[in-house]
User: What shape does this take?
Amino acid sequence: MTVNFTTGAAGLRAGVSLGDANTIILPLTPRLAAAMGPANAVGMVSGSRVDYINELQVRAAHQFVYHRPGAQVGSWLSVWRSVV
Assistant: This one.
């Protein structure tokens, strides 16, 4: 997912191409993601940052959003989708 954290936009539908992104995020597992950006780092992010990245993923989704049972994002899906 291409992200421009300066504008809060994510994905091609929001106009964030590779050239416009300041970060590219690839979720790997429910607790692991790879991100490419201007700085090299390895670390943990806060729960609120995880929630924000989840929201960006939902908003950037073209048609479907998949999540595992018990992921505790189900109740937020309609809220996040309404922001688009």
Remarks:
- The mean pLDDT is 82.
- Residues 2-82 form one domain.
